[in-house]
Amino acid sequence: QEQVAEFGGGLVQAGESLTLSCTISGLRQASDRYSMGWIRQAPGKEREAISCVTWIGDTWYLNSVKGRFTLSRDKARNTLTLQMNNLQPEDTAMYYCAALYFSSCPFLPNEYWGRGTQVTVSS
Questions:
Q1: Residues 104-119: tens digit of each pLDDT
Q2: How many CA atoms are closer than 13 Å to the CA of 28, on its beta-carbon side?
């Protein structure tokens, strides 16, 4: 059973930073063949993929977070970290970590394996 533990959300002011981390366990296939990424969903809005890294190491960012967010992955530990700088109120959302076998980026999972972590940015 796949499980995700997400950490690092919180309440910050505009311009401040947060670091989100997640660890994925219970993957059914070889873990180094999974692409991993972060998806967010704000109330009343469609969910959107914001950053991901493919299983071969190609990294992708949503245009609105380019230059502000940095994604890093530790394949050995199945962890994914998202450094978020210069946060803005429009970044307020629930953030979910996900993995998908042999996927390109970006991707949206069919289900979430974790509970997500809330990021709230006040103006």
A1: 999 999 988 999 999 9
A2: 6
Q: ω before 106 within 30° of 0 (cis)? A: yes
Q: Which residues pair with 121 in a beta bridge?
A: 12
Which residue ranges in the chain fall short of pLDDT 70? none
Burial 83-114 (b: 16+ CB within 10 A, else e): ebeebeeebbbbbbbbbbeebebbbebeebbb
Pick from 121, 99, 118, 91: which is nearest to 7 by CA? 118
What phi, psi does 23 have (nearest 5°)? -125, 135
Q: What is the pLDDT of residue 1?
A: 87
In sequence order, the 6+-apart residues with CB closer than 8 A to the CB of 74 are 80, 81
State the CB neighbour count (10 A cutoff) for residue 80: 26
Report pLDDT for 121.
98
